[in-house]
Amino acid sequence: MKMLRALLAKAARRPLALCDVGDVDGLASAALFKRRYPEGVVVLMAPSEVKKWWVKALTWDFVADLPCPGRARVRADHHLTNKPCAEVEHYDPGAPAAALLAARALGLDGDAVARELVEAAVQTDTANVTDRRVRLLDLAVRYASEAEKHAVVDILAKKGLAAVEEEPLKSLAERGLEKDDLMRRLAEALPGEEKLFIYSPRRLGISYRALTIELEKKGARFVNILVRRGWRTYRLYCGAHRDSGYNCAELAAKLGGGGHKYAAGAVIKASIYDPARPIYTLAELVKPEVVYVLGRCEGLKLPCKEVTMMSRGSREG
C-alpha cells in the first residue's frame, strides 16, 4: 500500500514526502508538508522501513524525522544517528524537534498553524508537555493506526491544534486516555531503580516510550524495555534521564537502531537458531541486577522478577 501510494503520487507528478509514523514530531512534520503543498502526498514510515529497496529507488521531495532514504531533495531531521544525504539538508542534532526544522525548510516560519504544530512537536519530543491540547494529540497519535494517522495529518494541516476538539482526533484521544491509564498502572508496579531492564514477552498495547518517561519521573536514570513482537523479532525502547551520563543512541546503534541520546530504539531480528539471543545481548550491554518481566520468567536464564499489574507488585522468579 505504501509503495502504491508513492508510485501513484509520482505518476500524477504530485509532491511526495516521507515522514516518521511513530510520534507527534513525525506527523507534525507531515502536516507542515501538507500545509505547504495541499496537493502533496505523504508516506508514513518507521525508521527501519526506510531500508526497503523501493524506498531507496525513489526520489523524495521532502523527508522529515527519518534516516535519509538515499535520494531526497530536502530533508529535515535532528537525530544524531541519521546522517545527511539530501540535496538540501536542514539537519541539526541539537534541535528539539524535526518539525522545527521542517517549518523552516518549507518556508512556514510566519504561519500561525505551523507554529502550533512545531510547539506540539517540541513539547512531546522533549517530554515536557504543558498544553492540554498537545497531551491529547500525543495520546491520540500513540495508539492510532496508520490510516488514522493519515487522517490526523490532513486535519492538522488545515486546523492545527484546534482539530483536537473535533473528530477523528477527539475519539482517538479518548481511546488514548484509556491506554494511558493502563501504562500508568504498570509504571506504579515497577521500581524507580537507577538502571532498569524490562522485558515484555508480548505486546501490551501501551506506549512503551511513555512508560520510560514515567519511570524516569520515579527516579530511574536508564530504562531499557525489550518487547517481543514475534518468534524472533524484538523492539527496543531506551530512555535516559537528561541529567544522567547514559546514552541511548549509542546503545541502540549497537543493536542496529538509532535515535537521540535520551530516547532511542531498535528493531532486532534474531537468528532462527537462537531466537532468544537479543534478550541476552541486551543484558550483556546494560548489565542489570535483575530483569523485570511483564509476564512469566519461564525459560529466562537471567535473574528476574515477574511484574503483575493487577496486584501492582512483583515476585521473585
TrEMBL record:
Name the Gene3D superfamilies on file: 3.10.310.30
Q: Where is the signal peptide?
A: none
Q: InterPro entries attached here?
A: DHH_sf, Oligoribo/pAp-PDE_c-di-AMP_PDE
In its UniProt entry, what is this protein called?
Transcriptional regulator, Fis family
